[in-house]
Amino acid sequence: MSLFEWIGESISPGPTGSVDFGRRGRRQGSRAAVLACFVLAAALLGCWIYVLFAVMHAGLLALAGTAVYLLVAYVVHPRPELTNVGWLGGLFDHPFRYSDDVNRFLLFLVVVMWPGRFVAESLVATARLLARTWHS
User: Fold this and answer.
1) How many angstroms separate the CA atoms of 1 and 7, rounded?
2) Helix, strand or coil for residue 135?
3) Which of 25, 49, 80, 98 has the fewest beta carbons closer than 10 A?
4) pTM recorded for the entire structure
5) Backbone phi, then psi, for 88, in 5-degree steps?
6) How far apart are CA 132 and CA 2, in angstroms?
7) Which residues contact 38 (CB under 8 A, 6 or more apart)?
């Protein structure tokens, strides 16, 4: 944080986003949608595991890292304030605010966690669908 950002933020603070924790309250989709998402998520996860073991020759630690990534992506939900990401939609840094840096970082986290959130939520939705089917 530069001196200009510190002074500018004290005069005119910009809005910042937040980070929510926990499971998102989402409506269960249709069986076809859940199964289609599961097939895509399983294919993505299978490709990633293939890359880990066959291409990168990684071990179980990398697999554990993938499980942690999926868990974090499922539980952590960054919410950037998109009206304050810098000048020209985030193309340039606002020289008198550091809150835009926080929002850009939250936006970066959204992009990085999106694939993991998709895979994790698809796996959980499929598990719920199977549990609901077996208990019926």
Assistant:
1) 10
2) coil
3) 25
4) 0.80
5) 55, 50
6) 55
7) 122, 123, 125, 126
Residue range 37-57, pLDDT digits in tens: 999 999 999 999 999 999 888
The residue type of 108 is F
Q: Is the pLDDT of residue 8 over 70?
A: no
Tokens of 46: 């299978």
Question: CA-CA distance, 74 to 35, in Å (whole number)?
Answer: 18
CB atoms inside a 10 Å sphere around CB 54: 9
Which of 23 and 51 is assigned the larger pLDDT? 51
CB neighbours of 19 closer than 8 A, spacing ≥ 6? Answer: 76, 77, 78, 79, 106
State the alpha helices, DSSP H only, in 12-98: 31-50, 60-75
H or E stretch at 131: helix 99-134
Report pLDDT digits (tens) over 52-96: 999 888 888 999 999 999 999 999 999 988 887 766 766 667 666
